[in-house]
Amino acid sequence: MKAVGSFIIVKDNEVIQENELGLIVTEQADKNIRYVISEVVTCGADVKEVHAGQFVYYDKISGSELRVKGKRYICIRERDVVVTMNDADSSI
Amino acid sequence: MIEKQIEFGNDARIKLKKGIDILAEAVSLTLGTSGKTVIIEDMHGNPHITKDGVTVANNAILSDPLENLGCSILKQASQKTGMEAGDGTTTSCVLAKSMVDQVFKGIDLVNNVTDAKEGIEYAAKKVIEILEKSKISIDDDKLLEVATISANGDREIGKMISDAYIKVGSNGVVTMDESTTKYDYTEVTKGSKINRGYGTPFSINNFRSKSVEYQNPLILISDMKIDMHERLLFAIEPSLKEKRPLLIISDLDDRVKLFLSQNINKKKLTVNFISPEGIGIKRFELLQDLALLTGGKVMSQMSGDSIQNINASYLGSCDKMISNASETILVFEKEENAKIAEVVEWITQEIRLTKNKSDKWHLEDRLSKLSGGVATIKLSGNSEVELKEKKDRVDDSIHATKAALQEGIVAGGGIALLDVKKKISKASLRGHSYSFNFGYNLVINSLSAPFEQIIKNAYGDYPEDIKSTIEKKRFNFGFNIRNKKFGNMIKMGIIDPFKVTKNAVLNSSSVAATIATTDCVISNKRKK
Question: Which residue from B462, B380, B471, B403 is spatially nearest to B149, judged by alpha carbons?
């Protein structure tokens, strides 16, 4: 699977986060937060700053879904991404 | 527009009286120890067996509009007695019927009904004045008698209720509930009750009783809606560090609830959250009281609390917390707190002064939460029907016992009113018009009606020998129907709360006054 042009494909499953007390904070518990984290699967040729395998914070409202072999992915563009990280646990 | 039907004078009054008579007859059957039971068909056709006057009255609806109006007037008067004093609906009905009967006998000779009305009101006031002189404040033994008599003579229920009041004190709360076993028993908790259940079933840690039970929890009290879970971290942090459970008493946003439930479910947190009781300033007062009890502070909008200036010193604590689906009980075993004593003193005084009913109720609620314990009487029954009848009686009895604790007692079985009649008829009334005297006398003459009705319920009529013996003797002397013996009613343990008798006289005389002054009735036409 290879993304075309400026498209980025990210995984649909949520990255579970913990706060400093070790408590789980999920998207469900914080619905008014617009940018969510996910792992990048593949990027198109025109994408400059994002690479596959990285974690990105993206605008959850602009993404749309696709299903490949029964698995759900989300398709976004580079302009929807605000932050890239090499590791989900690293702090910004 | 509904078509109306207008009737005047005697025609109207006769129909009103018919309605009053029907209801009074049904209700008065239940009066006294040998009162009869009444079976009522409910809307699904099931029988409901009762010995309780209120239940009978509530179910009486007549098809003739005028008769139904008469019935409703009596119903409202007796319900008012029930609401104010918790008992005495039957006595009110019997008194009112007797008064109305006399109104009809002599109303044609009365030329000024307003005078007659004044006479009725004056007489009612006079009766209560005399009654007040003969009332006695009660001790623990008498409490048992009061509870028994208002449970229609069931000594076991009487014992449970009086025990409950002795344990929680006169400021305490006594409630009732269905028993989970097949026995009746009383549960007493020393502490404060909040009528709110656990926020999420994930918190449950006692699966046998389906409740949340914490020892020595931290308590967070807030009157604002917490909309971010970050605002709770200051409380969660000490709870995790000290390994103590946390109770949150506050309104929470759905997302915060979700956050808590998620972490409770993953066993990362031990938290129970409930929303506070009351609204507006009343909610704030209740929370302030809780803060006083727990030794914490209220996180409040009014004091401009935000996430920056709040720390762990805002948290209170208690010895034990038990929370089930419908209520939460905080148990305190600490010694007296001087501040609480001050607040209790203030509230007690305020209850005496305030006239507003809902304010009074709120203050009593606060008082019971601050000072008293909570006793719950658990009732068992073999069938739904039996249980319902039992609940009616226990409810009556709880109210009557409370009324007796508040204002004292008088001789029961209708004797107190009979005594008043003996005393009052000696004092002659001069300088008033015929109409005034007519009103005055009809109230005084009716005072013997409750006693006569009790005897009638036992014997079918009023035997001459009982009548002559009772009339000769002095005050508080009466007749015990149970063992058919004469004697001092108070010594025999046959007593009524003063508040009940007082309200019965007041409300029934107001019915008589209404009927006496009525000359026209407008009712809705019924569709055939």
Answer: B403
**Which residue of chain B is at minimal alpha-carbon distance from A18?**
B263
Look at residues B397, B510, B479 and name the one whose alpha carbon lies nearest to residue B162.
Answer: B397
> Could B262 and A29 be called an inter-chain contact, meaning their C-beta atoms sit closer than 8 Å?
yes
Give the pTM.
Answer: 0.60
The CA distance from B323 to B246, in Å, is: 13
Whether residue B371 has pLDDT greater than 80: no
Exposed/middle/buried for residue B455 (C-beta within 10 Å: 0-12, 13-18, 19+): buried
List pLDDT tens digits, range B435-464.
Answer: 888 888 888 888 888 888 888 888 877 777
Nearest C-alpha neighbor of A38 from the set A51, A53, A57: A57
| Neighbouring-strand partners of residue B252 | B226
Q: A25 CB near a chain B CB, below 8 Å? A: yes
CB atoms within 10 A of CB B198: 21
Which positions in chain A touch B236 (Cβ < 8 Å)?
Answer: 21, 23
Q: Number of helices and strands (H, E) in chain A?
A: 0, 8
Span B270-289, pLDDT tens digits: 999 999 988 888 888 899 88
Instruction: Quote the CA–CA distance of B75 and B24 in Å, as a whole number.
Output: 9
Mean pLDDT confidence for A22-33: 77
